[in-house]
Amino acid sequence: MNKFIFSKLKPFFAVCFLLLIFSYSLQDLRLIYPSYFPKPVYDFKKNPLKKSTVELGRKLFYDPVLSRNNTISCSSCHLSNQAFSHAGNHLSKGIEDGIGDRNSPAIFNLAWQKTFMWDGSVVNIDVQALAPINHPAEMGEDINAVVRKLNKSKEYKTLFYKSFGDSLATSERLMKALSQFQLTIVSANSKYDMVKQGKAKFTQSENNGYQLFKQNCSSCHAEPLFSTYEFANNGLSYDSKLKDYGKWNKTFEPADKMMFKIPSLRNLAFTYPYMHDGRFKTLYEVLEHYEKGVEKNPNLAKQLEKPIIFNAKEKEDLLAFLAALNDSVLVSNIEYRQK
To answer: Which sign does the torsion angle of CA 206, 209, 214, 218 carry?
Structure first.
């Protein structure tokens, strides 16, 4: 009798098992971040984090199929062990030895950002990837061609099915998967974070630098993200070769001239060179700029109307504090690497 009942229930158990696997692949994920971080600005209700979609996004992020000649992936310019930047390169590099217009920005804590790119020309991360894919010197591809390539792949058909309930790749699904993976890249494990959590203490030099930071830098690089992610003119000289005026290149509004997005000060050890065009190789050069290199102009940030001058000891202390913002956990996290 028991054997008979079990044989009748076997199909039921099999269906339950398949439903469990299916529901697991579609389960919502929770973005993990410290309690002292502000609430993310990204609307996860419109694109809920799901394990299967994050995994699809990770594969797409590392796949050169997104480029015209299948040689350049997102990860080519955003390396996980460099806080998803391209350390040592002034400008981004693309297909057929192409050179992009700007330095590759680091990718982390994107859920707290309203705009993207150095000039803020993209206002939704769910479409951000279109910019490098379409850029002739970066990936040089058409999004429709990418979708056609993905729909020819049995592996991608399976991955899209797990994520969206059917196997069809579309540009919208491609963009959302890429954004989901990138949204999970959170930098919150530096020494600064350990201090905030009561798990560590600053050295005397780091604490001195922290005080200098709060007095001179925090209005643009606000804690705990270490950027307001707004735009500012920080007195950089105009590069006549790149012809880059920042936001002005898109808006042609006089007030936007030389206005660039303020980057985070987290992970500076992994993301050199600095500024939108990578003109400064070291942080000492950056400090030197703010001391005697700022060019006066109508749009200059008010905080920079007077030089910011540090003596040698203060510079060492400030740099010690900035080093406490480096997140070694982020750059070694296998969850962000290619599988």
So the answer is: negative
Asked if 202 contacts 324 with a C-beta cutoff of 8 angstroms, the reply is yes
pLDDT tens digits, 106-134: 999 999 999 999 999 999 999 999 999 99
The DSSP bridge partners found for residue 79 are: 85
Give mean pLDDT, residues 238-267.
96
Structure tokens given for 79: 């390396």
State the Cα angle at 87 between 209 and 182, rounded to 5°. Answer: 90
pTM of the predicted protein model = 0.90
DSSP state at residue 269: G
Domain of residue 269 covers: 191-330
Q: Give the phi and the psi of residue 250 in degrees, each rounded to 5.
A: -105, -35
| Each residue's pLDDT tens digit, 9-49 | 454 444 344 334 444 444 489 999 999 999 999 999 999 99
Pairing of strands 260-261, 231-232: antiparallel
125, with CB counted inside 10 A (0-12, 13-18, 19+), is buried
Task: Give the pLDDT score at 15.
Answer: 39
In a domain, 17, yes or no: no
How does DSSP classify residue 200? -
Structural domains of the chain, count: 2
Residues 44 and 156 in one domain: yes
Q: Which of 227, 173, 141, 171 is nearest to 56 (CA)?
A: 173
Task: For residue 6, count other CB atoms closer than 10 A to its CB.
Answer: 10
Same domain as 173, residue 208:
no
State whether residue 99 is helix, strand or coil. strand
- Residue carrying the six token digits 């920079």: 304
Q: What is the mean pLDDT of the chain?
A: 93
Shared-domain flag, residues 179 and 226: no
Reference 90, options 109, 105, 71, 108; nearest CA is 105
Q: Which of 127, 117, 111, 129 is nearest to 63 (CA)?
A: 129
Q: Is the pLDDT of residue 296 over 50?
A: yes
